[in-house]
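Good morning C.,

I know you're traveling, so I'll keep this short. The sequence:
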Amino acid sequence: MTVSGFDPFSTMDRLLGRSGFGEGGSRSLGLPVDVYRKGDEFMVEVDVPGMNPDKLDVTVERNMLSITGERPARHDKAEVVLCERPHARFSRQLYLGENLDTAGVKANYDNGVLTITIPVSQQARPRKVEISGGGSEAIDIGSSDK
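The C-alpha cells, ready to paste straight into the viewer:
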C-alpha cells in the first residue's frame, strides 16, 4: 500500500491462515484488515465480532505488528446440528515501515471492530521549512532597460 509515496507497510505483509492453515498445519482463520491514513496516524481496522477483547493479543516487536486470538466453539457438550461460524485460532502480522512510531501504538475494541492506531514518527511528518536571508533589496525580474 502506498499513500502519498510513503509505504509504512511493506509488501512483505503476511497473512497467516489465508490458505486455511497457520503454523504447524493447524487450521486458522483468515483475518482481513483495512489500513488507511488519517492525518499523522495510520489506522488498522480488524473485524472480530463476538470476541472478548481480553482474548485478543496485539503486540509490536521491532517493526512487526501481530494480532492473534482464538474464537472457541460455544457448544462443547451439545449435539451440533449446523455449524457455519468459524471457530479457530487466528493470527495476522503486518510489517511496519521505519517511519512509524511503534512506541505510540494504541488499540481499541468497539462493536466488534479492533482499531489499532499507529502514529507517524515526528521525523517522517511533513514540516514547513523557513526561508532565511535575502535582505530588503527587491529584484525586478520583469523590467528591461534596453
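Safe travels,
E.
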